[in-house]
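User: tokens in, sequence out, please.
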């Protein structure tokens, strides 16, 4: 029985694209679900046109073919890719190849894009650290919780994490953004914010509320080239997506930290991570991980930060524990303001990101994570305004992982188990599904070991989108399966205690 269930979950479903595009109040969202291969294929199929534009009109046009080939040579010489990510990226290439606009071929390179091209795109800061011994210094982040956020009517003591993602300005890049949601059959749902088709995972949250931002840092000294480097973005992705990375039996902030420190890494980074208070690290819901190839890594907690005071954490580009702090006007601005008034509100978080603007740089993305409610405030830049100058668009987890308006290619089957919400649930949830034509449907809930837990009676539904409510499911991890004639679709379900 176990073998049968996992065959059903991992087999491609009617060759459909397991994903679709959606615009939520001006924010472009790519929804992907299924096996790693299915998610990668959908991402390549749906967002491949933007990748081709970035490659041809931004990267190769700016650097030249010779420089790009040097980046490729560096990657193949010094880096390795975890197998799970390799599967996703290989499938992304297949998805790009199947697009009707035939954008897999690069006129500049005189060949088709391959998996190495995608890996290099996802690892540019890592490769730069190897080739030039430096990172670009940009980005800022701030987290607060406890008494510091008690006065905000929405937070009431819960943590929040704000960040600016800074970059060089390019008129094309300023108009090309993507929010990528991954809902894997095996592992945690993850949403990542950044560039199209980007698995770099520099700004992300998972279904447990674990939140991540990544800033460049000084002191990019490389002493250890062995074992091969794993791109830091891939480490972050797996730390968030794997069920229990550190094998502790609980998915918490330590899983993300374990993923970030598991492999050898090239760049020097400050990684600011946050979680619900119940899933924090040593009692704190936020930690700054200072990481460097030459000197290893260290966790910086609020108790170790004598500048900001309790229940506040900030990260710019200088280390505070791994190396003596360098001067940073942004960190000083934050510390001066918080010392004068430690109370934080959602509006103040956003205003602080505007104050952390870097002259001569471009703020591509501003995000405000609320780990306990899994809400996210977000703004992308455009050719007129920096992201922090805009009002945030607030996204909920159910919005990000809902598939109510699936847009399949014309020759694909429209039937699908679109979403399960809420997920995680407390035992009662709604399965949203769509049918290409009138059909009888049956829903079954299986344990992860393949045991049938619950089955609804067979019922006929018309073509279109429908909801069905399922209840009385105890705490655990399950597979929710929809069967309609010869069509089968499944999704992972997490049930937590009330």
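Assistant: Sequence out:
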């Amino acid at each position: 029985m176990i073998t049968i269930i996992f065959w059903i979950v991992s087999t491609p479903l009617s060759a459909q694209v397991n994903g679709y595009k959606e615009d939520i109040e001006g924010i472009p969202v790519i929804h992907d679900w299924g096996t790693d291969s299915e998610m990668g294929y959908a991402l390549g199929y749906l967002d491949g046109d933007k990748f081709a534009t970035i490659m041809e009109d931004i990267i190769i046009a700016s650097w030249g073919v010779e420089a790009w080939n040097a980046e490729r040579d560096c990657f193949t010489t010094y880096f390795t890719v975890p197998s799970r990510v390799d599967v996703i990226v290989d499938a992304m290439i297949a998805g790009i190849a199947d697009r009707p606009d035939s954008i897999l071929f690069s006129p500049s390179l005189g060949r088709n894009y391959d998996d190495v091209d995608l890996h290099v795109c996802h690892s540019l800061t890592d490769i730069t650290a190897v080739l030039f011994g430096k990172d670009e210094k940009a980005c800022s982040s701030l987290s607060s919780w406890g008494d510091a956020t008690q006065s905000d009517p929405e937070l009431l003591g819960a943590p929040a994490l704000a960040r600016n993602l800074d970059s060089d300005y390019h008129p094309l890049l300023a108009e090309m953004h993507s929010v990528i949601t991954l809902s894997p059959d095996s592992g945690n749902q993850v949403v990542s914010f950044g560039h199209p088709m980007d698995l770099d995972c520099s700004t992300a949250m998972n279904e447990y509320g674990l939140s991540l931002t990544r800033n460049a840092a000084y002191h990019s000294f490389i002493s250890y080239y062995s074992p091969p480097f794993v791109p830091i973005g891939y480490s972050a992705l797996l730390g968030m997506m794997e069920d229990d990375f550190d094998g502790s039996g609980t998915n918490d902030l330590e899983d993300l930290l374990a993923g970030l420190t598991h492999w050898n890494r090239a760049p020097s980074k400050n990684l600011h991570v946050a979680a619900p208070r119940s899933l924090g690290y040593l009692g704190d819901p936020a930690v700054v991980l200072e990481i460097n190839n030459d000197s290893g890594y260290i966790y910086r907690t609020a108790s170790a930060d004598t500048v900001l005071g309790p229940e506040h954490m900030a990260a710019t580009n200088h280390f505070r524990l791994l190396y003596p702090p360098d001067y940073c006007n942004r960190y000083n601005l934050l510390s001066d303001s918080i010392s004068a008034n430690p109370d934080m509100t959602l509006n103040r978080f956003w205003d602080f990101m505007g104050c952390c603007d870097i002259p001569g740089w471009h703020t591509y993305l501003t995000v405000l994570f609320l780990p306990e409610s899994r809400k996210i405030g977000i703004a992308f830049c455009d050719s007129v305004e920096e992201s922090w100058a805009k009002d945030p668009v607030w996204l909920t987890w159910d919005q990000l992982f809902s598939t109510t308006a699936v847009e399949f290619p014309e020759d694909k089957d429209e039937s699908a188990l679109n979403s399960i919400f809420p997920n995680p649930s407390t035992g009662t949830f709604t399965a949203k599904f769509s049918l290409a034509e009138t059909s009888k449907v049956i829903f079954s809930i299986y344990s992860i070991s393949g045991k049938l837990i619950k089955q609804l009676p067979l019922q006929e539904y018309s073509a279109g989108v429908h909801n069905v409510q399922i209840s009385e499911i105890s705490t655990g991890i399950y597979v929710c399966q929809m069967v309609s004639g010869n069509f089968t679709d499944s999704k992972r379900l997490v049930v937590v205690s009330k």
